[in-house]
């Protein structure tokens, strides 16, 4: 490695270390307190009456299309009914407005979780010393913390995947309501789905707070080993 490249890399490493230390010492505990207060006093995740999610979905056919119109695919095949486009009332264009606010809030939080965890993780990984025989207890602590940070990232990405699945599942049910408006079970199923989604979103927000608390606690208890993984005659416990 040339001297010029080494200097640039060292500068990058120092900048990253400064940012990671600020996250560990200031931003991470502040996120714990902010989310905790928000979950206790905020209106978003403190809905007591889940019946607010029981808004009826009223399909309104587009008059420019005839649902009974048939077209001939070819001379030897049967006729096929054309799809029936439908527009909705304003409150059914997406999920329930309150749920949409919850999802939007969590998506922003997830983006921040991933960013913070990734910064701290790469800082610790770059602080892992070269491989040597013996005195690797501190290195094992670093690796364990990196593992927990990666797990928090994976959990955050899994939330985004679950949100997409919720929209897809709800869209299928809305389609059923459009096709069979007289079958009330589909409407009830959508209400149940929205209630379940709200409960899951609230638990997810709690999990994000808990992950911050767990990571902060683990890092603080092992900070000396994370900073200096190889110490002479040190016998620190992992937790």
TrEMBL record:
<dbReference type="GO" id="GO:0005654">
    <property type="term" value="C:nucleoplasm"/>
</dbReference>
<dbReference type="GO" id="GO:2000045">
    <property type="term" value="P:regulation of G1/S transition of mitotic cell cycle"/>
</dbReference>
<keyword id="KW-0647">Proteasome</keyword>
<dbReference type="InterPro" id="IPR036252">
    <property type="entry name" value="Proteasome_activ_sf"/>
</dbReference>
<dbReference type="InterPro" id="IPR003185">
    <property type="entry name" value="Proteasome_activ_PA28_N"/>
</dbReference>
<dbReference type="GO" id="GO:0005737">
    <property type="term" value="C:cytoplasm"/>
</dbReference>
<dbReference type="GO" id="GO:0008537">
    <property type="term" value="C:proteasome activator complex"/>
</dbReference>
<feature type="compositionally biased region" description="Basic and acidic residues">
    <location>
        <begin position="72"/>
        <end position="83"/>
    </location>
</feature>
<feature type="domain" description="Proteasome activator PA28 C-terminal">
    <location>
        <begin position="95"/>
        <end position="235"/>
    </location>
</feature>
<protein>
    <submittedName>
        <fullName>Proteasome activator complex subunit 3-like protein</fullName>
    </submittedName>
</protein>
<feature type="region of interest" description="Disordered">
    <location>
        <begin position="61"/>
        <end position="85"/>
    </location>
</feature>
<dbReference type="InterPro" id="IPR009077">
    <property type="entry name" value="Proteasome_activ_PA28"/>
</dbReference>
<dbReference type="Pfam" id="PF02252">
    <property type="entry name" value="PA28_C"/>
</dbReference>
<dbReference type="GO" id="GO:0061136">
    <property type="term" value="P:regulation of proteasomal protein catabolic process"/>
</dbReference>
<dbReference type="GO" id="GO:0061133">
    <property type="term" value="F:endopeptidase activator activity"/>
</dbReference>
<dbReference type="Pfam" id="PF02251">
    <property type="entry name" value="PA28_N"/>
</dbReference>
<dbReference type="InterPro" id="IPR036997">
    <property type="entry name" value="PA28_C_sf"/>
</dbReference>
<dbReference type="InterPro" id="IPR003186">
    <property type="entry name" value="PA28_C"/>
</dbReference>
<dbReference type="InterPro" id="IPR036996">
    <property type="entry name" value="PA28_N_sf"/>
</dbReference>
<comment type="similarity">
    <text>Belongs to the PA28 family.</text>
</comment>
<feature type="domain" description="Proteasome activator PA28 N-terminal">
    <location>
        <begin position="6"/>
        <end position="57"/>
    </location>
</feature>
């Amino acid at each position: 490695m040339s001297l010029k490249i080494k200097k640039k890399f060292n500068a990058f490493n120092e900048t990253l270390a400064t940012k990671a230390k600020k996250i560990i010492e200031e931003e991470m505990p502040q996120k714990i307190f902010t989310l905790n207060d928000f979950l206790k006093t905020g209106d978003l995740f403190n809905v007591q009456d889940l019946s607010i999610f029981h808004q009826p979905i009223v399909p309104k056919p587009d008059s420019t299309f005839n649902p009974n119109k048939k077209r001939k695919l070819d001379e030897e095949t049967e006729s096929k009914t054309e799809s029936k486009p439908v527009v909705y009332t304003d409150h059914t264009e997406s999920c329930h407005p309150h749920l949409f606010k919850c999802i939007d809030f969590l998506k922003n939080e997830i983006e921040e979780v991933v960013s913070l965890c990734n910064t701290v993780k790469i800082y610790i990984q770059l602080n892992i010393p070269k491989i040597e025989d013996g005195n690797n207890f501190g290195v094992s602590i670093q690796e364990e913390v990196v593992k927990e940070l990666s797990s928090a990232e994976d959990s955050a990405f899994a939330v985004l995947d679950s949100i997409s699945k919720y929209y897809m599942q709800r869209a299928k049910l809305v389609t059923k309501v459009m096709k069979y408006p007289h079958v009330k079970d589909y409407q009830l199923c959508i209400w149940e789905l929205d209630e379940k989604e709200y409960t899951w979103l609230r638990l997810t927000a709690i999990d994000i707070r808990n992950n911050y608390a767990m990571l902060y606690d683990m890092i603080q208890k092992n900070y000396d080993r994370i900073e200096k993984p190889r110490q002479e005659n040190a016998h620190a416990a992992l937790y």
